[in-house]
Amino acid sequence: MPRALITGITGQDGLYLGELLSSRGYEVFGLVRGQSNPKVPMVERILPGVELLEGDLTDLPSLIGALEVSQPDEVYNLGAVSFVGVSWKQAELTGETTGMGVLRILEAIRIVYGDDLSRVRFYQASSSEMFGKVRETPQRETTPFHPRSPYGVAKTFGHYLTVNYRESYGLFACSGLLFNHESPRRGPEFVTRKVSRAVARIYLGLQDSVTLGNLDARRDWGFAGDYVDAMWRMLQQDEPDDYVVATGETHSIRELLDVAFARIGVSDWSKHVVSDPRFFRPAEVDILVGDASKAREKLGWKPTVGFKELVEMMVDADIKAEAEAAGLTPPKL
Ligand code: NDP
Ligand code: GDR
């Protein structure tokens, strides 16, 4: 039975990846931080067979301990301060977790596996945010980086470190340059979920409006369930490599609002949406759209959920969840 260790198991991707690996016969271990992490009951409900280990990406001994206990064949490093907006306010923590955390887990692997590094494979959750102020469109594996946030800078450090450990030590280390991916499990601070939740609550009469930032930014949004499959595929190849994972389509926040509000029968959302400079970022990434040809050709990967279907899936899930929480029976869409 192959064994996998996932950092960031309590996050959106950790949950989908845990489900995928369990369904493929893996023994799954997940790193959980904090002395009483409130997400543990949720993880245990969604992933009943998974063994949770205490540890933190800012604490090397705990990473060594987690690797010694789990002895994984595959390590997926998904843990991070992942919200770009907060990375300006907590730049040091972002650097320590999202950047230096990669160094620590790679060093922990070297310490635990010693001369036997061929026993383990490593996946690093890199990001389209590394492209930042984009030098070409669409972005591909060879596009130069120009990160625009402390988060993007920290991810770029982690990316190059992953490449470097592959080149320096022959570690089977892959970096996935993943574009935005969403789902009903997306954290409520990210724009897609903020919108789907607000639209659900507006539909149910629980609120009137939502306050957002820059409505003109464009992103390449896919479904998280598809993207964790690409992570797994990268670690099953004969040779380690880096891959862009994206849908190849880009949409603005305005288009996201169009689709989300259309789901509840509202075509003019202007009276429900306020744009407030408070939510603008010190430096914005204006447009992202990825070229995933390499992943398609080498990994046989392609997205299965389109933009409209994704947004509708999120709005529907939030209507159900918000109605249940408020003790309402939602009217039929
Ligand atoms: P989430 O924000 O949902 O999850 C982040 C995870 O990191 C949580 O489990 C969190 O734990 C954990 N974490 C935070 N700090 C630490 C720490 N100090 N030590 C250990 N774990 C920690 O992110 P996603 O699931 O969306 O993303 C997974 C990874 O992929 C992240 O690295 C993200 O930056 C990257 N990525 C995501 C993309 C996306 O569109 N979703 C696109 C490209 C890259 P806790 O629950 O305790 O806070
Ligand atoms: P992003 O996702 O920064 O791309 O990072 P987010 O959903 O936070 O922002 C996307 C775009 O929407 C604009 N925006 C708003 N964003 C938020 N969160 N809240 C708002 O009110 C709002 N209004 C407008 C933003 O300015 C931005 O342009 C995500 C994370 O998952 C990262 O970890 C990951 O690496 C990248 O995707 C790829």
Question: What are the defining features of this structure?
Answer:
single chain; 333 residues; alpha/beta; two-stranded parallel sheet; binds NADPH dihydro-nicotinamide-adenine-dinucleotide phosphate; binds guanosine-5'-diphosphate-rhamnose
3D architecture notes:
The chain is of the alpha/beta class and 333 residues long. The protein contains eleven helices and 13 strands. It has helices at 12-23, 40-46, 60-70, 86-89, 91-113, 150-169, 191-203, 224-235, 253-263, 293-299, 307-326; strands at 3-7, 27-32, 51-54, 74-77, 121-127, 172-178, 181-182, 210-212, 218-219, 222-223, 242-245, 251-252, 273-275. The longest helix has 23 residues, at 91-113. The model has no long low-confidence stretch (mean pLDDT 97). Bound molecules: NADPH dihydro-nicotinamide-adenine-dinucleotide phosphate and guanosine-5'-diphosphate-rhamnose. Guanosine-5'-diphosphate-rhamnose binds next to helix 7.
Could you provide a short overview of the structure?
Helix content is 42%, strand content 15%.
SSE topology:
Blueprint: E1 3-7, H1 12-23, E2 27-32, H2 40-46, E3 51-54, H3 60-70, E4 74-77, H4 86-89, H5 91-113, E5 121-127, H6 150-169, E6 172-178, E7 181-182, H7 191-203, E8 210-212, E9 218-219, E10 222-223, H8 224-235, E11 242-245, E12 251-252, H9 253-263, E13 273-275, H10 293-299, H11 307-326
Parallel strand pairs: 1-2, 1-4, 2-3, 4-5, 5-6, 6-11, 7-10, 8-13
Antiparallel strand pairs: 9-12
Helix pairs in contact: 1-8, 3-5, 5-6, 7-9, 7-11, 9-11
The structure holds NADPH dihydro-nicotinamide-adenine-dinucleotide phosphate and guanosine-5'-diphosphate-rhamnose.
